[in-house]
Amino acid sequence: MSNLPLDGTPPAATPLTRAVLEIDEYAAGLGWDQPARLFALVDTAQLREQEPELAERLGLADGDTGPTVGLTPIEQDELPPGVPLDEFLGTIAWPDAVAGCALSIERLMLPPTAETSLPTDLDEEALTAWVAEHPERQEVRMTVAVLRDGGREAALRLREKDATTEVLTGENLVPGLAEALTATLSG
Predict the structure, then answer these.
(1) What angle do CA 172, 173, 176 make, to 5 degrees?
(2) SS3 category, 114
(3) Within its chain, how far is the Cα of 185 from the centroid?
(4) Nearest to 15 by CA among 71, 98, 59, 60
(5) Would you say the C-alpha torsion 128, 181, 76, 163 has a positive or negative sign?
(6) 93-104 pLDDT tens trace
């Protein structure tokens, strides 16, 4: 009998990778064109011990078949509309019980070859419009997670290859966003 999930994807190597892929799969189930989503990452065993009612609501109560070790993502309230992401992240401070945090967000990306045609005299709004009209643009969902101990992981899913088996993972895929999330943990 194989230990592979039913869809044939290999099991994630670390609890952080598993949490990122769980959030990515959750976001994928909601479809595209969704707002950014913020998650607290909590130690599953501590959650069961310290918040048994919450653990039970999340399907993590003792005796359940859910994970007994690892990280449990808990979605936070919706991000405020109209507030730039960097400004919003600057207002967040997590309590000590939170082991880490994650953000899932959709963006347009261009391949490195498009940099040669990038206009230099555009303001942010004009640049956003230019990218949105570029023929090589790609819609991507980025899920980035960081831990207090410095661990980081990201998952990237292209809209044109929207399948669990096509998700790219790695710790340095979105370093700027990982650094911004890490700053929320040191407050």
Answers:
(1) 80
(2) helix
(3) 15
(4) 71
(5) positive
(6) 999 889 999 999
